[in-house]
Specification:
This protein has 286 residues and is of the alpha/beta class. It contains nine helices and five strands, in the order ααββαβββαααααα. Strands 1, 2, 3, 4 and 5 form a five-stranded mixed β-sheet that branches. The model is unreliable at 1-38 (pLDDT under 50).
């Protein structure tokens, strides 16, 4: 009888979970957070971005600055470091596509005795110090710093036309410097201005008060009427966009300007190995 009672007690203890055999039956509670093995430190992100930028530098002959490599104070602008890895890495991919649209070796030719080529700063929160500079918030700008060119791009500004526009400004600086040295240079500001219609009153900073020139087929938009540099940048940027054949067919004045500018580029650059139809000619030659 005593043995039977002991057996009954033992069974009850097992069923209630109080026996030695009923030790942990569920996973233990973890009080320390599980480390995120995929998360990278800011230093690791910086290193990865520098490595990605280096690949493009070797490929196109430009210098690309990322993260804390960049300047944030410029003569007319201020900016912040771009620290979002995904954004900066995405812009590097965009740059690879944009720079790859030009003939091979194109940007290496901007390295001369006078200029060491292009340095591209990938930043964010780009802001004009002087709001009279056509507004405060900017997507990018380019500048000649006398020993090299800079192209500053906000990583939040991802529209394709902006890249072509600012790169054209740098190309334009290179062309102007060449024209100043060569008496037989094809380019001249007089030659460009001669392409404008007789009724055009002349380039003016106060472009907002000019009529809607884009309807007349001579200017991409009123912004191009500020000065000849912006005119060329607007025309070239439009020419670099794919599938704009109808646009150039319908705007003969803009097409005429692009045809002249293409000849100028070929007069200044070494065209060895370039395709018969250049990327900026595809919209009106193909």
């Amino acid at each position: 009888m005593k043995k039977l009672l002991c057996l009954i007690v033992t069974l009850l203890l097992l069923l209630s979970g109080c026996g030695n055999e009923a030790v942990e039956t569920t996973a233990p509670t973890i009080t320390e957070p599980i480390p995120e093995t995929t998360a990278l430190s800011s230093e690791e992100n910086q290193l990865l971005l520098e490595q990605e930028a280096q690949l493009l530098e070797d490929k196109y002959g430009v210098v690309i600055l990322v993260g804390d490599q960049c300047d944030t104070v410029f003569s007319h602008f201020t900016a912040s470091y771009a620290t979002d890895y995904e954004k900066v890495s995405g812009i590097l991919k965009t740059l690879d596509y944009i720079l790859g649209r030009y003939p091979e070796g194109f940007f290496r030719q901007l390295c001369t005795q006078e200029r060491s080529g292009i340095r591209i700063h990938l930043i964010q929160d780009l802001w004009a110090n002087n709001e009279d500079l056509y507004g405060g918030d900017y997507g990018g700008f380019s500048q000649d710093l006398l020993d090299h060119y800079i192209l500053v791009l906000d990583v939040d500004a991802t529209w394709e036309e902006l890249y072509y526009h600012e790169l054209t400004h740098i190309i334009d600086m290179h062309i102007a410097m060449d024209a100043a040295k060569r008496e037989d240079a094809l380019f001249s500001e007089e030659g460009w201005s001669a392409l404008n219609p007789d009724w055009f009153p002349g380039y003016a900073d106060d472009y907002m008060n000019l009529p809607d020139l884009q309807e007349d087929g001579w200017f991409v938009d009123p912004y191009g009427a500020i000065n000849p540099q912006e005119d060329r940048a607007q025309v070239m940027a439009k020419a670099m966009l794919p599938n704009y054949r109808i646009y150039f067919n319908n705007n003969q004045g803009i097409r005429m300007k692009m045809e002249y500018y293409s000849l100028v580029i070929q007069d200044v650059f070494d065209t060895t190995g370039w395709p018969e139809i250049l990327p900026w000619e595809e919209n009106y030659k193909k």
